[in-house]
Design goal:
Length: 120
Amino acid sequence: MTLRSASVVAFVLAALPCAALADTIVLPLPKGAKAETIRVAYDCGAFGHVSAQYVNAPPVALASLSFKGEFVVAANVIAASGARYAGGKYIWWTKGSSADLYDVTLGEGAAPIASCISGT
């Protein structure tokens, strides 16, 4: 698949707050698909801040998250309401201007490790 025959989503990691990351991920999309990137900063109280970058290009929906020196790329998964993303050991679940971060290693019924509100 060439750049002329497919739309391409470029996920530029160097633009994110983690200076150690300087690579690019490119995902080919079906012809005619258009990508939308949204950046959101979340205040998570005592947990600190979470920077999120959402890349929506149907049928692909991804979120990259930066928090406490960690970087996570998560894919959108089925949710009863809101948008739920899973990546590594984390679940990032957003609804409106709020979001919760879960660590799945703490168990299925565990409370979120961070409850956040978007600032932008």
